[in-house]
Specification:
mainly beta; 5-stranded antiparallel beta sheet
Length: 335
């Protein structure tokens, strides 16, 4: 990872690691810092960068048939598009903006991209999430929330702290995956105990486990746990907000295990911090509900009214400062 020195207009010196992904991503993921201990912290906790989630639970071979297109799936007769639907706008690149409602909670379709069984090329219009980030991202130290993520121009001409006015991420655009280790719920519970002990010893170790829940009908729940604590991508540094500019939508490529894909729910300016709602619900369709929630602390919320079994537990305050702030970070009581 190469480093270079930069300076703010107020002569504050900082350093930049130009790409912590080591070119794994299509676009660089830079890391800006002021003190060497920040780099030591990054390398001690984030041991391996991956573009996509890793798992030993199932084979990565495609579990559904692919198309036999030769036109990069531009035709409406594409087998994948006719079977699973097609939701991308290639000019963004991302979801068609009309599919994202103001409350980000109405789009409940799972995105099925073309896979290894398809004959189309990597440039196919139905291959997006599988390619990784769609623009340069930067990890930076926020004022009061630890590390955060913002989007920056590919060739910035100004300091990133000058807050660009131009839109750099369009509504609907795919930004990145929330990638990590796919683990069983039993592992989540055991790791959570370790993370708690580390937090007590180090002050604030953090817990990044994301739990995806797909409610099938009224009885069945498909649960996917993503832990990027040590093995993950830039998504692990994106903070929570009760009024987020990103939302998670489920995508599947070659596997039954869903991908937590982060799409923009509105236009985003360069330098603006990226965020998603850790307790967001993706939507409801034909009785099937999709939701996701992270376990952040020993307390939290599932609604504006605090559940009785949370009362008296230690809470971690939400610092998003939005008008819709619920006051407390989310919590998965099942863990």
């Amino acid at each position: 990872m190469s480093e270079k020195q930069s300076s703010h207009e107020v002569q504050q010196i900082f350093s930049v690691i130009e790409d912590i992904s080591n070119k794994i991503e299509r676009f660089p993921v830079s890391f800006i810092y002021e003190k060497n201990r920040d780099v030591k912290e990054l390398r001690a906790k984030h041991l391996q960068y991956v573009k996509h989630s890793v798992t030993s639970l199932i084979s990565c071979e495609s579990y559904y048939d692919g198309c036999d297109c030769t036109d990069n799936c531009e035709s409406s007769e594409c087998g994948c598009k006719s079977t699973h639907g097609f939701f991308y706008d290639p000019t963004i690149p991302g979801l068609h903006p009309s599919l994202i409602s103001p409350d980000t909670g109405k789009f409940s379709h799972t995105i099925y991209e073309c896979n290894s069984s398809c004959t189309c090329t990597p440039g196919c219009l139905n291959r997006l999430v599988q390619h990784g980030t769609t623009l340069p991202l930067q990890i930076f130290k926020t004022h009061n929330k630890g590390w955060g993520v913002r989007a920056i121009p590919l060739n910035p001409s100004k300091s990133v702290d000058n807050r660009f006015q131009e839109t750099i991420i369009k509504k609907g655009q795919f930004v990145c995956e929330y990638a990590g280790e796919i683990i069983k719920t039993e592992q989540v519970k055991s790791r959570w105990k370790v993370y708690q002990e580390r937090e007590e010893g180090e002050g604030d170790a953090g817990n990044y486990v994301l739990c995806l829940k797909e409610h099938i009908g009224h009885e069945r729940i498909l649960r996917t746990n993503i832990d990027p604590t040590f093995i993950g991508n830039v998504g692990r540094y994106i903070n929570h907000s009760c009024s987020p500019n990103l939302a998670i939508f489920l995508a599947r490529v070659n596997s039954l295990i869903p991908i937590a894909a982060l799409f923009a729910v509105r236009d985003i300016c360069a330098g603006e911090e990226l965020s998603f709602d850790y307790a967001g619900k993706i939507g409801i369709q034909d009785g099937n509900k999709l939701e996701y929630v992270t376990k952040e602390v020993m307390g939290g919320y599932t609604s504006r009214e605090e559940p009785k079994h949370f009362q008296g537990l230690e809470k971690k305050p939400c610092l998003c400062s939005s008008e819709e702030c619920r006051g407390i970070l989310p919590f998965d009581e099942s863990l």
